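tool_call predict_complex ligand=zinc ion
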Amino acid sequence: MALFIDVYRVSAAATNDALELLHKSHDHDAGIWSPHESLLIRRLVELFTQRGLDRLARVKKQILAWEAGNHHQQSAFPVVRPGMMERWNEAELTLVKLYLESLPPAQWALDDHMMAVDYVVQRYLPADELRTEAEWLSTRSGMMGKVQANIAAELITAANADKILGALPSLVSTATSQFHLPALMRNTLEFARVRCAENVRAITESVRHRLRSTIVQHLEDQQAQVAGTPGQSLETKLFDQFATLNRDWRRIAVTEAGEAQTQGYVASLVPGTKVKRVEQYVGACAFCKKIDGVIATVVSPDHPNKDPETMIWPGKNNVGRSASPRKRVGDVLVPRLPEEMWYLPAGLAHPHCRGRWVPVIDDEPGDDPEFGDLLRGLLS
Ligand SMILES: [Zn+2]
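tool_result ok
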């Protein structure tokens, strides 16, 4: 099918964004809920997903209760509006709650509705707990990469993955000291930790933004509504918003666990080890299908003659690179340079990619025989 899109009138930057979107538009969202292909992180992805979805469900339930006036409690004391800051400490949160509870629903101003959103988001999506949750996912997934490098492929079963999961630490600092991790592995876990926390933080912001704008719109709709005609309920309006947020959360689970595991695996292999890319799942994009089966040699990040076509190294990824072979400069489309394009990554090719690496020769030793012994002891 030929597709003609007239982008002449828009800016070069907007054209490039459009091209990028077209080339990424596969986005495999169809298979986003299916179990992860990697047995080592399958359980992690499901646990992280479930806990996040539970949190989001609580946020939705709470905001609907506030908006329905269900939390109202008559108070003998005059209600004093707390300051309009958007982040409160524990004592301030209690004051905000008291204020909102005692304010009769009929007296809620627009700012009070917004305050209820900020309260619910802070109470049910607490920043420190979510950072801990993000580190739990990224550290254990990264360590699963080290597990993969140090045990035989035949030992990687769902039951064994569960046994190992329980023995892995949740913090980068604990993993580093407990297993005497080399700097490269520690850095890999640190990058994974910060990236995952950043994505989780962005979802919290998105929850807040979506709730605030949906509620403002809902209140405006109610005011503008023709008398006697039924309007859409707030719950209906929030349904789509939460469906999107649930998918966003799932995408973090799949992407961050996959990225941490693949990078952790590559960082735990002896330089010179050969690995094979596997991209076999429903909805794999054209780029990922193309790299399925490719054999790459692991090299150290400071290898002097890195060949991006045949070698991978820890940290090699496609962030800031483009999926589109062309870009707009002025009024013309020009080919992108090879160094601007997606290449064979050590981790995932793009968000929600489910690519992974498997050993070419199964009994090749990993980087840490002691860790391998420990794992085999755990499984025997
Ligand atoms: Zn892909």
